[in-house]
Amino acid sequence: MIHLKSAKRDKYTLTDLTPEKSTLNNAILRSKQKLILCSAAIAFSIVLSMSAFLVLQQHLGYLLLINTCLLVHAWFCQAKLAPLIKLFIFQSLVTIGLYVLLYGQDRLFEAVIVVTRIILVMLPSWWLASTQSSHQISQVLSLLLPTKWAFVVTTSIKVLPFIGQEARDIYHIQCLRGARITPKALMNPINWYELVKCVLFPLLIQLLSLSKHIAHSANQRHFDKSSTHTHWPLN
Description:
- The chain is mostly helical.
- It has two domains: 17-133, no CATH class; 159-218.
- Helices cover 71% and strands 6% of the residues.
- It contains eight helices and two strands; from the N terminus they run ββαααααααα.
- The protein has a two-stranded antiparallel sheet.
- It is globular.
- The protein starts with a strand and ends in a 15-residue tail after the last helix.
């Protein structure tokens, strides 16, 4: 906030109000701290996701412990855990079921390990999308990637929670229509094709439609007219 103070006749000087200036500096400092934390969160999630497939089997317990801590942190940040847990349960049942059908029960333990690694790959990205704002993620990625790539990566990360919610809504609607995709019906592998047709295909179409709307919205805001984009420092 700036006041005009008369020094002489027809002459004015600008004087700053110290409290407002101090508040602005504190806000900028907090914004920089959030940006540093977001950078650390991005690097941490990338390393953690890569480690899920690189670490030895006997070290997976450490990754499980770390990812459990991420779940607790996301829960404290008011993230919805129920859709994620349901998605993991469904994915685990499908993967283990396919392993049993193709290889028999002798490789059941191997199927559990594969499911665990897939979950450990997905969890850090979900945690990042649930705890960090898209503005901060885009601002950090813009330092390393071209602006368009940073926008695409940020949008892909932030759409992860939407995928789980949309899949659940489509699943419930198809169940109400009488589709044979209930947990009991899916015990029969013949009904798996109906799951793909009734849930996965509509979900894919919905995601393509969402991508089209996002691209149209970005074009309307002249996103591709400038090679460099500014970021409001107080967000």
